[in-house]
């Protein structure tokens, strides 16, 4: 084990560029070990050699390494944005339709949904994110544009788009998500038409962003709800704390416990190979490497974040 | 929502006695709402009007309110001590026999155990704590004395004992735990005799401690593994971080997600009505109120900790 | 317990009209106890006072009592016809896509489907019947007309139709069935378009027949595969035996064990309140009463069949 | 497919010795394919080349082939005897403590037991048989002697014994059964001491009988409850019918549906490689071959019974 800086270290004293560089070197041997998601063709084509990492500080500094400005499909990372927006729409009423507990099962499981009357365990499993998408579909005249506006503002990058080819591919291979929406609708936990909910959902899962975008865009969660670039109070501090708590307990699929154990940061992953973590009051950090581990999280990305917290001692615990 | 102190507040500036006093008043109306655990007679007799709270600072100060020096049965809170000791015995080998993921099911569920070949989900559900007890039964000549020594040293209180009446009562009503041990033994995940494992387990569940004891005894987890009173480095900083992570994701039964969402601290609860939380690098905090909510956690205790983090802004998120 | 006729009784010696009359009287007190299926409006309107029963002998005689010629919605009883047709289309290949075991769970459960890779437990739970419908959708140019032709020929009643209003209502309230088809398609166990499968399925569930129709139409299963009216060898004797076996183990939802225990006949029920049973080598028997028990089988219908086997000693055991 | 005799065949006209001989030859190639149960050493030693078969007719004739008089461990076949005895002790009250439905899960599953409050699905899964053993433990002064008396009388063989070595071995490897009893006791569905229940259970599972014994001993179930040898009315006809129904729906572990589909007889199997079937009003038939299929039923035994019903057309369907 490395000796992390003592508790009294000042964040200002870290040499972040050197730390990112060291991690970049160390992960090289792991890049080839994961498996690129192949359930949709568009994802399967991304080369496993890609690796990027970005650290966005509360003071505005952004440190990057590797392919940190390559756009990729953010997939489930987008569930944090949609949750933030849905909470803004209907507040705590969301929690009548969706739980806040880890699922203990794979991320698109129907089992618990059946036992628990169509109420998903949390907003980060697919079922929960589809309920969230239903809220957006109902609340906004143009929910897809609203999502684009939100994400572009958070990242300070107006070139962010949803990839139509990925979206089409998701829809074509999305019988399991369609099953989830129909099933929840049979429990009256979906208001909009099934295809509208899926349309909103696939749109935000298909957003293309890069590591620097992602780190910047999560800063409001490290900053008591306030966006740095736009100075907008996106959500109140209590809600930022709570979204962080949800990410820590439910943000990395079935591996949330293990991820908290090793990394110790609230984080959200996507099958495109991205992971974004929050260091409350300090920074947001993102990593991208397309090879996934058996739980669907970026293999080298997880190692990189683990190394980061070891090298810096920066974790919530 | 209360406005918590800003991020720049110094812990030294809080008026903790006043905060504890305020919480003490606020929880009075909730004391009667929970249900005292009645599965063993000895627990059922404790009056619901009891409430105590203690805050042990890293600098040695301990603030208390209410019945903070009444001894009570710490029950599952003891699983944190036994886990710490078992990790000291066999290190990371423990994780071959026990997972680190939230269970998503009730705390003594056999379902997952069956699906997952006798490997419990985490060391805080009963099955996992029984594996931990098996490690202690095998490793120590006198595992019960070793536990007493450990707990007394951590709390700085040599009068701590295991309650023989409670222990006897647990054993008599413990067919479900006996089922768990037999079942895991059928998967070769138990080495010692079934009755020896249960003996160690019931002994530590029956420990009697008070709030001040509990808060002091958890300080090593807030202090990078170092005990304040004894100056002993109980475990290394990495392991302290990891036990905190496990408490946050798995420490409050099925309600861990919700507890993280509301309170935002690593914590471990027991059906005796105690809860202990860790504020990394700052303090340990304990609360006791015998009335339980539907998940088996102290109802007023949960409210008290929620209020504490709201009033102080002290949480890991 | 009544003393049934001895084993040496000749079927010719029974006074079936008197037996049916006796049962008709005895069930009157039970007609009101069940609950009419209300998940679709068209079913909810049928009066609970209705009761009919028909016994079709291999020699061509048909005995009836009560409302035995009132048409009603046969619902899941139609799954026996569709299974017979699908076996004729693809033979034992069907069993690669569908099991032959009781499900042990409610009739539209997704749980086992998830654990067992999209292979339904048996052809009489909804998931299995949807796989069967997929076979018909693929095999026939006009699967709905083919079903009508089959059923009319078996019952010798050309006026049998599918009720368009019931079918429309089923489709509107059928999100759970849609979920099942999408879900199985995600496992590649559905070939046709989701809506085509549902169209075939809802069409045959919405068939309207009466007790005399039903009893006559099941005679081929009592007669080694040969239809009495049409003299057509519908299926070979081995297959008839096997469909009977499936009805006995899986034909009455979660209550198949109990139904075998009490009645002891292969039988298939529907939520419209109909049940049809087979007495191999002797007869087919049907009953209709709209009030359902907690398992979804006709309450008075089950009692009537139980009484029939007690009074006659005719059961497979 | 063989053409079975027509429905009008008289049982008297079959050449049973020739049929058994033919089957004996046909199964030779399958004897090696199964796996001998190895969870207890005493069972693992039996050679896979063993095969015996016996047919006991209601008129007293017994036809045998192969190793039909080799004693072997009857294991779960004994659950039919214990069920018969328990029903005699407490009648239908048994069904308050045990269901009558197929389990849909493996034969010693704890899952359903947990979901269903400690009430086993049926008396032939281990949990159910342990409840039955509890009834015997409570009802008889010497339940093991009572069982021996019952079995010897049914088989007309006073040399039947329980194998002490097998029983000891079962107990030593029986942590899963011990788990089941403790677990059901936690739901108050066990009255006797855990070790007494296990003692009764392992005693009857360890009974040694041969094929001719087994076939003769099941004749009461083919003969409306009356034992042929002793002329004793063991149970009334209704109860015999019901035990047959239970065997058909639940008698061959997870394969009951498939077994009914292929063989079409009420039957009970044991992991010692024995299977006994009932042909109501005609005969009882037994087979023994130690190699098991993946579901725990004798592989060649299942094939032999399948062939028998094909060659004779004798099945309940």
Automatic annotation (TrEMBL), chains A, B, C, D:
Binding residue positions for substrate: 76, 126, 170, 177, 201, 253, 271
Catalytic activity: L-glutamine + H2O = L-glutamate + NH4(+)
Keyword Transcription belongs to the record: no
EC number(s) from the headed UniProt entry: 3.5.1.2
MF term (GO), any: glutaminase activity
Family stated for the protein in its record: Belongs to the glutaminase family.
Subunit composition and interactions: Homotetramer.
PANTHER family: GLUTAMINASE (PTHR12544:SF29)
Protein name: Glutaminase
Organism whose genome encodes this protein: Alkalisalibacterium limincola
Gene symbol of the encoding locus: glsA
């Amino acid at each position: 084990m490395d000796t992390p800086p003592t508790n009294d270290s000042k964040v200002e004293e870290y040499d972040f560029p050197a730390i990112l560089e060291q991690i970049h070197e160390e992960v090289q041997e792991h890049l080839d070990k994961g498996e690129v998601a192949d359930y949709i063709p568009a994802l399967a084509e991304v080369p496993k050699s890609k690796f990027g990492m970005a650290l966005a500080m509360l003071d505005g500094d952004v440190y990057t390494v590797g392919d940190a400005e390559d756009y990729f499909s953010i997939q489930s990372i987008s569930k944090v944005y949609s949750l933030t927006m849905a909470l803004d729409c209907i507040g705590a009423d969301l929690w009548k339709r969706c739980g806040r507990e880890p699922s203990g099962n794979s991320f698109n499981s129907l089992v618990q949904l059946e036992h628990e009357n169509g109420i998903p365990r949390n907003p980060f499993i697919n079922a929960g994110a589809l309920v969230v998408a239903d809220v957006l579909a109902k609340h906004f005249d143009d929910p897809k544009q609203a999502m684009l506006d939100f994400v572009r503002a958070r990242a300070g990058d107006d070139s962010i788009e949803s990839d139509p080819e990925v979206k089409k591919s998701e829809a074509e291979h999305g019988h399991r998500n369609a099953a989830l929406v129909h099933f929840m609708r049979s429990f009256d936990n979906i208001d909009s038409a099934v295809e509208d909910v899926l349309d909103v959902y696939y749109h935000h899962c298909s957003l293309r962003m890069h590591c620097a975008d992602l780190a910047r865009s999560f800063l409001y969660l490290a900053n008591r709800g306030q966006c740095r670039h736009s100075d907008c109070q996106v959500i109140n501090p209590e809600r930022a704390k709570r979204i962080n708590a949800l990410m820590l307990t439910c943000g990395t699929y079935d591996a949330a416990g293990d991820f908290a154990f090793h990394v110790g940061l609230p984080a959200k992953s996507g099958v495109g190979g991205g992971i974004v973590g929050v260091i409350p009051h300090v920074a947001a950090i993102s990593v991208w490497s397309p090879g996934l581990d058996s739980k669907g999280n970026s293999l080298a990305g997880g190692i990189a974040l683990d190394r980061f917290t070891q090298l810096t001692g920066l974790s919530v615990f």
